[in-house]
Amino acid sequence: xxxxxxxxxxxxxxxxxxxLLNDNGVRIEDVQYLDLYRDYKRLSADGLKQSYIVxxxxxxxxxxxxxxxxxxxxxSKPVVSAGL
Length: 84
Fold this sequence. Notes:
Blueprint: H1 7-13, H2 15-23, H3 34-45, H4 50-61, H5 65-76
């Protein structure tokens, strides 16, 4: 791995956006679920029922259904801004 700077330098690059994420309770570790969420949105747009989608994603991603429901709820939450 190549070092590209310090954590402080990284945070300074987009401080306002990181503050927005923090203000909205966004969990940085949820980035690992973006593919799952994209699949959820696609299957939902196809008209499939949420319980079927969750069962399918649970099997595909080897993640408990309860976790998938929590992830969907977190990633579907609206983002509010105090003024960017």
